[in-house]
Design a protein that fits this description.
Arc Repressor Mutant, subunit A; 2 domains; 10 helices; alpha+beta; 255 residues
Length: 255
């Protein structure tokens, strides 16, 4: 069996649990062709597994976020979750009401002292523009995608995931970090990429997680920036060019 690093093992174990209907450790080990002691170590030592999975009284492991479409359990961790067609049907005020109620439900502060509500509305406007563009480019296919705003995984002190917007297609998760700025800052590029390894475990091996930084104060911007001085690159765009991030990985304009 080919050696795997800890993140790959975590992802495989989490996927087995979140795609199953309650598995004991020995069943997980058998499915993944792993040693049972290895599986037990991952189950009890991995911080993210402790966030995403729980054990019932029959010693069976269950996933909190199921790895199947639609990912309706994202509602429990998001200020807003729905399919794209429902999102587009809501007025701005109706959507805003649901986001605030959702943030309060998941324990996200809704104090507007630092312009939080303005940032929510700005973020929504950019996403509405994106799907207007995509409807023109690829038609109604994007209406069945899923969208989550203010995704928060904060169940204990071990892991904190704060994603502004997640867009889930058939096999990709776009994790979008929004800033109401027009200039690229290296620390914000790094912030946009920060949650990618965790989201890969949340969504499992059937999904590719693709982070991007969106600068809503910029215009006509679409570039790739290095992450933390490495050779890894992250797309940075303005709101009006956000469709390019999706086309870069989905290639619909090249068909």
């Amino acid at each position: 069996m080919k050696a795997m690093n800890g993140d790959q093992l975590d992802r495989r174990v989490c996927a087995a649990i979140c795609q199953g209907d309650g598995l004991k450790a020995r069943e997980i080990a058998r499915r993944l062709n792993l040693d049972r002691n290895t599986v037990n170590h991952i189950l009890y030592a991995s911080p993210l597994l402790r966030e995403l999975c729980y054990q019932d009284r029959g010693y069976r492991w269950h996933g909190i976020i199921r790895q199947s479409r639609p990912h309706s359990s994202l509602f429990e961790f998001s200020g807003y979750y729905s399919l794209v067609d429902e999102f587009l049907d809501l007025t701005e005020d109706a959507w805003m009401k649901r986001v605030i109620e959702g943030c309060q439900r998941i324990g996200r502060s809704t104090s507007d002292q630092r312009g939080l509500f303005h940032s929510f509305r700005d973020c929504r406007a950019q996403m509405a523009r994106l799907f207007e563009d995509l409807l023109d480019m690829i038609g109604d296919d994007c209406l069945s995608w899923e969208i989550a705003f203010e995704f928060r995984l904060k169940r204990a002190r071990h892991v904190r995931i704060y994603a502004d917007v997640l867009v889930i297609t058939g096999d990709r998760v776009f994790s979008l970090e929004f800033k109401m700025k027009d200039g690229i800052q290296p620390q914000e590029v790094a912030q946009a990429a920060k949650y990618c390894p965790y989201l890969e475990i949340v969504f499992g091996p059937d999904y590719e997680v693709l982070p991007a930084l969106v600068l809503t104060g910029a215009k006509d911007l679409f570039v790739f920036e290095p992450i933390n001085g490495t050779d890894n690159l992250l797309p940075v765009c303005s709101g009006d060019m956000l469709f390019n991030v999706f086309d870069e990985y989905m290639g619909f304009l090249r068909k």
